[in-house]
Design brief:
Order of helices and strands: HEEEEHHHHHHHHEHHHEEEEH
Helix content: 40-55%
Low-confidence stretches: none
Subunit structure: Homotetramer.
GO molecular function: glutaminase activity
Radius of gyration: 18 Å
CATH superfamily of the largest domain: DD-peptidase/beta-lactamase superfamily
Number of domains: 2
Distance between the termini: 23 Å
Largest sheet: 5 strands, antiparallel
Protein name: Glutaminase
Keywords: Acetylation, Hydrolase
InterPro entries: Beta-lactam/transpept-like, Glutaminase
CATH class of the largest domain: Alpha Beta
CATH topology of the largest domain: Beta-lactamase
Mean pLDDT: 95
Bound molecules: 6-diazenyl-5-OXO-L-norleucine
Length: 305
């Protein structure tokens, strides 16, 4: 398998030149645009890896799948889906436009920034620190990596430049979708996006979803099968933003991308996959990671459709 992964990395690396590293969060601009890595964690406990699989990067929007699981466990789906919808947008991940034009005024889904900020506002905890530490501990548990922590530099960079997210959050408070202190809620959201991971961590989170919320190895059910199904369905319909439809046709695997360059993918009953390539396409998805998943899906027949 690792030979196969080496071949796929070698034949895909050229495409990293066709994208660009995100710079709207200034600290992300420091990444090396030609890095490309992959890890597969399968149901039998095997880990296969290749390329820059052990480079650390920030999880960014991939964290939206994890905060959604915790918010659903904390509140139940009636409460959560009263405040955030279930439909793809066709707009960019940070788009503001539909917040005012759609009635009732609530974000269309939890994978876009506006929806994810609502989800973070719903996490239980006596204050922002407890909310974030519950989320971090949950992420440590499902990835099997108790060392996960935030990249302070990226966190501060996003906090000082995240005015579009701030604007959306204040708007949502005004229309009654979000309650509480907006700066506190954004602190949780910016911190969750700044958690440092590598391809192995993402592959293990993908495997956890592929295995219906059970930690493989220990057999411990951490999240209900129903919640993991909801999350995987969002990954199919909205996980690659306004590129989700094409990704479903070309690759056919539930996946979630982040502007840090990661993609976390879950092939039900088979494996989790983590990819890293900070060069992004025009939709904000890792251009190299997309290509790796495309090649792998064809080679191993991974499409769920
Ligand atoms: O809110 C933001 O802009 C980032 N923290 C996360 C966005 C992100 O990863 C979008 N992904 N492609």
């Amino acid at each position: 398998m690792e030979n196969k992964l080496n071949n796929i990395i070698n034949k895909s690396r050229y495409i990293t030149k066709e994208g660009e590293v995100a710079t709207y969060i200034p600290s992300l601009g420091k990444a090396n645009s030609t890095d490309l890595g992959i890890c597969i964690a399968d149901m039998e406990g095997n880990i296969y890896k290749s390329g820059n699989y052990n480079k650390k990067f920030t999880i960014q929007s991939i964290s939206k799948t994890i905060s959604l699981m915790l918010a659903l466990m904390d509140n139940g789906k009636e409460v959560v889906f009263d405040k955030v919808g279930m439909e793809p947008t066709g707009d960019a991940f940070n788009s503001i436009i539909k917040l005012e034009t759609i009635m009732p005024s609530r974000p269309l889904n939890p994978m876009i920034n506006a929806g994810a900020i609502v989800v973070s506002s719903l996490l239980k905890g006596k204050d922002k620190d407890e909310k974030f530490s519950r989320l971090l501990n949950f992420m440590r548990k499902i990835s099997g990596n108790d060392k996960l922590d935030i990249d302070e530099d990226v966190y501060l960079s996003e906090k000082s430049t995240g005015d579009r997210n701030r604007a959306m959050a204040y708007f949502m408070k005004d229309v009654g979708i979000i309650e509480g202190d907006i700066e506190d809620i954004l602190e949780v959201y910016f911190k969750q996006c700044s958690i440092k991971v590598d391809c192995i961590d993402l592959a293990k989170i993908g495997l956890f979803l592929a295995n219906k919320g059970i930690i493989p190895g220990t057999g411990e059910q951490i999240v209900s099968e129903h919640i993991t199904r909801i999350v995987k369905t969002f990954m199919v319909t909205c996980g690659m933003y306004n590129g989700s439809g094409e990704f479903a046709i070309r690759v056919g695997i539930p996946a979630k991308s982040g502007v840090g360059g990661g993609i976390m993918a879950a092939v039900p009953h088979r494996m989790g996959i983590g990819t890293y390539g900070p060069s992004l396409d025009d939709k904000g998805n890792s251009i190299g990671g997309y290509k790796l998943l495309y090649e792998l899906s064809r080679e191993l027949n991974l499409s769920i459709f």
